[in-house]
Amino acid sequence: MRLADMIPRRRSVRAYRAERIDNAVLADLLRYMEGLVPLTSGAKVEGRIIPTDHGNFLQKWKTPHFIAIFSDGSDDGLINVGFMYQQLDLYAQSRGLGTCWVGLGSLTDKETVPEGMKLAVMMAIGVPDDVPERTSADFKRKNMAELSDQPDDRLEPLRLAPSATNSQPWYVTHDGDTLHIWREELGLIKQRTHGRMNKIDMGIGLCHLYAEHPDTFRFWREENPPKLAGQIYVGSVTL
Ligand SMILES: Cc1cc2nc3c(=O)[nH]c(=O)nc-3n(C[C@H](O)[C@H](O)[C@H](O)COP(=O)(O)O)c2cc1C
User: What is the pLDDT of residues 19-69, one digit of tens each?
Assistant: First the structure.
């Protein structure tokens, strides 16, 4: 199965059974994590499957497994976190597991942080208590017109991407074959609550474009970045 086939089918799963993921499946997930493709080289990301009781969460999670995802804390590190671990989200859901990105969490002192890295975000992963897949096209998402300067069916995977509090911070402008990718500029207060997560969200959205065009997707940054009022330039893409 192509990863992209999961885009219209995946959802955030919050109801889990208390049972452990089968050892062979866990081993396969660890193998898959080693091969995750980064968006940019240089900003290191590391994920570890940890017991749920090594984390502190505001919500109650029944699954015994979480993934703690660490980065160097740079903007590119956070974008890579989203880009790489959304590949895992799609893959795990294609294997019948449930996943949910979890921004509201920290680690207890039972879990050590890799040298020189910080916790970026966590992901619940486990055996879902019900059908993990969407049973209908019940996406609550922006319209194409709110997401792009022109209608473009190729942006549908980005439109369906998950984001923290469903904030969908992305915007796209067209310049010939090139797509310029923007992140919504936030006011001071929202910057505090959403700034870090929105960088992860951008990586997640870009991952969906990559998943749909894995062989041709290209990402770069213009030397003279374009400007757009109310938006922060993230980079440019061809599909
Ligand atoms: C970076 C990030 C952090 C998130 N944090 C949480 C969280 O702490 N708790 C939660 O229940 N959902 C969390 N979510 C899930 C979003 O609420 C969810 O993706 C969004 O509402 C869209 O729904 P869907 O994933 O089912 O399509 C997070 C999603 C992302 C991408």
Answer: 999 999 999 999 999 999 999 998 999 999 999 999 999 999 999 999 999
| Spatial strand order in the sheet of 45-51 | 45-51, 65-71, 118-126, 98-102
Ligand 1 centroid – CA 83 distance (Å): 15
* Greatest pairwise CA separation for the chain in angstroms: 52
Closest C-alpha to ligand 1, atom 12: 102
Determine whether the shortest distance from the Cβ of 200 to ligand 1 is under 6 A.
yes
CA distances for 77 relative to 71, 72, 123, 199, 226, angstroms: 5, 6, 16, 9, 22
Q: How far apart are CA 78 and CA 99, in angstroms?
A: 19
CA distance 205 to 163: 8
Range 152-173 average pLDDT: 97
Q: CB–CB of 71/45 below 8 Å?
A: yes
82 Cα nearest atom in ligand 1: 1
The Cα–Cα gap between 93 and 25 comes to: 12
Helices 75-94 and 188-212, packing angle to 10 deg: 50
In the chain the domains, ranked by start, together with CATH numbers, are 3-126 (3.40.109.10), 144-238 (3.40.109.30)
Q: Can you give the pTM of this predicted structure? A: 0.97
Query: How far, in Å, from the CA of 165 to the mean position of ligand 1?
Result: 6
pLDDT of res. 124: 98
